[in-house]
Specification:
Layout: H1 2-13, H2 19-34, E1 39-43, H3 49-56, E2 60-65, H4 68-81, E3 86-89, E4 101-106, H5 117-129, E5 131-142, H6 144-151, E6 155-159, E7 163-171, E8 177-189, E9 192-203, H7 207-217, E10 220-226, E11 239-245
Helix pairs in contact: 2-3
């Protein structure tokens, strides 16, 4: 199964991802807006890279992801590093039977994998129901600028000895969406590689639409910023960050 293979190599492919910046952004938001935060719900946690870092900072973390394979990798990493994170397999649009948390995050553009506005709204409602009063909700999404000016029609690649890839981006069927076609080449023996392919589709929405959804759910939107900054959003910002409170 290709997604199982992708989960296995995910950390190698994402080794340069700015996980420490996401954690620093979270801590700064807690300091500015959050008060006393001890429990954190990490949605779309993947292989646990943010969850583990938050746990090491002293937070009581629960990681949720739809992929069983990603959670297997996350659990193995937590055990190896002796970090107490609870992992649960659920859909972030249909969370159920969880406790209430002081804060929730959806980082690493995980929300962009939800393609319909109705499902995005359902995710916000699920988060709202599992936050304590005055609980914080932070997430980031790709900007419209990034979808249309960086991804669309572009090809990226990496030619490493043990793991190489070709990543092609096409316009998706939904408005403001992009289809990522990825081909991976993994070295099994000195002169033998195996290939596996992945297709990932992401969609983003305008800041105004996200704000309306959040406010209709009951959230107060405290700040909207770009690219890990607490300053105003620049026209060429690639990531948009939302800081909200129940």
């Amino acid at each position: 199964m290709s997604y199982q293979q992708f989960a296995y190599y995910y950390d190698q492919l994402m080794e340069d991802a700015p996980y420490d910046q996401w954690v620093a952004f979270f801590k700064q938001a807690v300091q500015s807006y959050g008060g006393n935060v001890s429990s954190v719900l990490d949605l779309g946690c993947g292989t646990g890279s943010v969850s583990i870092r938050l746990s090491k900072q002293g937070y009581d973390v629960t990681g949720v992801d739809l992929s069983e394979d990603m959670l297997v990798m996350a659990n193995e990493k937590s055990l190896q590093q002796k970090v107490p994170v609870q992992y649960i397999q659920q859909d972030m649009t249909e969370l159920e039977a969880l406790q209430e948390f002081d804060a929730a995050v959806i980082f690493c553009d995980s929300l962009n994998y939800i393609l319909s506005e109705e499902k995005v709204l359902a995710a916000f409602q699920s988060v709202y129901q599992h936050l304590k009063e005055d609980g914080l909700f932070l997430f980031d999404v790709h900007s419209l600028y990034k979808i249309h000016n960086i991804f669309m029609g572009s090809t990226f690649g990496s030619n490493e000895e043990q793991l190489s890839y070709i990543w092609q981006c096409y316009e998706g069927e939904e408005p403001d969406s992009v289809e990522h076609e990825l081909s991976f080449f993994v070295q099994e023996e000195e002169n033998r590689y195996i290939r596996f392919d992945e297709v990932h589709i992401q969609r983003t929405l305008s800041i105004e639409v996200y704000k309306k959804m959040l406010q209709s759910t009951g959230f107060r939107v405290l700040a909207v910023t770009g690219d890990f900054s607490q300053d105003d959003i620049q026209p060429e910002a690639e990531r948009i960050f939302f800081i909200c409170k129940k």
